[in-house]
Specification:
Elements: H1 3-24, E1 32-38, H2 43-51, H3 56-64, E2 66-71, H4 79-88, H5 92-95, E3 101-103, E4 109-111, H6 122-128, E5 133-136, E6 149-152, E7 170-171, H7 175-179, H8 204-207, H9 211-235, E8 241-246, H10 248-256, H11 270-286, E9 293-298, E10 302-303, E11 307-308, E12 314-315, E13 321-322, E14 324-331, E15 339-344, H12 348-355, E16 360-361, H13 375-380, E17 385-386, H14 405-415
Parallel strand pairs: 1-8, 1-9, 2-15, 5-6, 5-8, 16-17
Antiparallel strand pairs: 2-14, 3-4, 6-7, 9-14, 10-13, 11-12
Helix pairs in contact: 9-10, 10-11
The structure holds zinc ion (ZN).
Length: about 425
């Protein structure tokens, strides 16, 4: 063997070793991240269903993912406050979304709108850094703001009866025409569509079930089904970050919780049935997870039914929410079967930033859920920090009135949130 040949061999080995260090032993970042928000999902409610094997995809998340409970704000806050904190890692006083209904400078009661949010959401931060995003149905996102990709605001769900003349339901504006065929209104929903959830074949009058209860299930299901279809459609466009929000578990909880204890009542299993349906939806997003994808799911709070106030009276609305919701991660970089301890709703945005290899801002109030990740992944990708993402001018305004305001208030009354 000539010395030159030996040297080449050595060089070759060195090259191979370096390549292994660069690609093989150092895990890459995920190529895309999918987020599924499930309002009010609660492990305690799911437990009997998991034991019966009725939630195969949540079971898969538990066995193959990293899971735990996630703590909401105490005292309890309403869902728009929470989902805005989830998207920003900022406290309610910082992000400015205080509930469902805001009051304008002139004292009018108007639903909070996205333009009143004072800080950047995860989709703003990712867009600014060139990532392609698709955001579907997230609370308080109308009017749809400009992103690098697609944003479908939560106001499209209120078009249940007829087309509302309303700008900026989506970004870009003309996305609305594209997704219009995917929208489901409560009038499109047949009894067959909801038969796995609601007892459509029972004589409602005989069973003492009010007709509005079936209509309510159709309306709630129509919204989630619309978001499901649109999110799967936008996924086809090849985005780096896909986020979708489902409200149905929360709405079902508010309307049907009391029936859970009524043995043999036709409405006893409506909430359980809805969980089973959502489990299937989660499964469809899990099916998109390949070796380069990270999936994150969470709820904003748990659900434990009505509580009594100091005067002994039944408290409704926000008091039905529980302190602990769910969190789960699965896919690229995740340590299978690991338990996440001490998670809070402010931790979601830092964890999403971490997944993109971006620094966490020191003015964010949450932390990266490092429990969820493999140790070699954590070693290869240490958590980094910057001072803030709140650079540039964010134009913040008064809540905007729209033709759907009355519908929103109607729904909030049905949920017991407002009088
Ligand atoms: Zn909620």
């Amino acid at each position: 063997m000539t010395s030159r040949f030996a040297r080449l061999l050595t060089l070759g080995c060195v090259t191979v070793t370096l390549a292994a260090l660069a690609c093989g032993s150092k895990p890459d970042l995920p190529e895309r991240v999918i987020f599924v928000g499930i309002d009010a999902a609660d492990w305690d409610v799911m437990r009997p269903l998991l034991e019966e094997g009725r939630l195969p995809h949540f079971a898969k998340l538990l066995s193959q993912g990293a899971t735990g409970r996630i703590e909401t704000f105490i005292p309890l806050r309403k869902s728009p406050v929470l989902w805005t904190s989830i998207a920003t890692s900022k406290l309610p006083d910082e992000h400015g979304i205080g509930g469902y209904i805001a009051s304008t400078a002139s004292g009018e009661a108007v639903p909070y709108t996205g333009n009143t949010r004072r800080v950047k959401a995860i989709w703003n931060i990712l867009s600014e850094r060139g990532y392609r995003v698709a955001i579907v149905g997230w609370m308080v996102t109308w009017p749809a703001e400009e992103v690098n990709g697609y944003l479908v605001s939560d106001y499209i769900q209120y078009e249940t009866e007829k087309r509302i003349e309303l700008d900026r339901q989506t970004y870009p504006d003309n996305l609305f025409e594209e997704i219009d065929r995917l929208r489901v209104t409560k009038f499109d929903v047949t009894d067959r569509d909801i038969e796995s959830i609601f007892p459509v074949d029972v004589d409602l009058q005989e069973a003492g079930i009010a007709p509005w209860q079936k209509d309510y299930v159709k309306m709630i299901w129509a919204t989630d089904e619309t978001y499901r279809r649109i999110a799967l459609y936008l996924n086809e466009k090849g985005v780096d970050f896909l986020a979708v929000y489902f409200n149905g578990i929360d709405s079902m909880g508010h309307a049907f919780w009391d029936f859970r204890k009524k043995e043999g009542h036709p409405l006893q299993h409506v909430i359980d049935n809805y969980y089973v349906w959502i489990d299937g939806v989660l499964g469809q997003f899990m099916d998109l997870v390949d070796s380069k994808t990270l999936l994150i799911t969470c709820s904003d709070h748990g659900f434990h039914g009505p509580r009594r106030g100091p005067d002994g009276g039944l408290l409704v609305g926000v008091y039905m929410h529980g302190r602990y919701g769910i969190v789960g991660l699965m896919g690229h970089g995740v340590r299978p079967g690991s338990h996440i301890v001490g998670a809070g709703i402010l931790d979601i945005t830092p964890t999403l930033l971490y997944a993109f290899g971006l620094p966490i801002a020191q003015d964010m109030k949450g932390k990266v859920l490092t429990d969820a990740f493999q140790s070699d992944y954590l070693r290869a990708h240490p958590v980094t920090f910057i001072e803030t993402y709140e650079t540039g001018e964010r134009v913040v305004g008064e809540p905007l009135k729209s033709p759907v305001d009355e519908k929103i208030k109607e729904r909030l009354r049905a949920l017991g949130y407002i009088q």
